Amino acid sequence: MNINLIHFDTSVGVKKPRTMLKSSIDSCPFCDVEHLTDIIDTDGDIIFLKNKYVVVEGSDQFVIIEGSECHSDMPRYSKEKMRRLIRFGLKHWKNLLDSGKYEDVLFFKNYGELSGGTIRHPHMQLVGFPKLNRDLLFDPIELHGEIIFESDGVEINISTTPRVGFGEINIIPPAGNFIDSKSLDTFADFIQIGIDYLTKHFRKDLSSYNIFFYHRENSEGIDQIYAKLIPRFATSPYFVGYNIHFVPNNVKTLAEEIRQIYFS
Question: Of 79, 111, 135, which residue is a domain's last?
Answer without folding.
Answer: 135
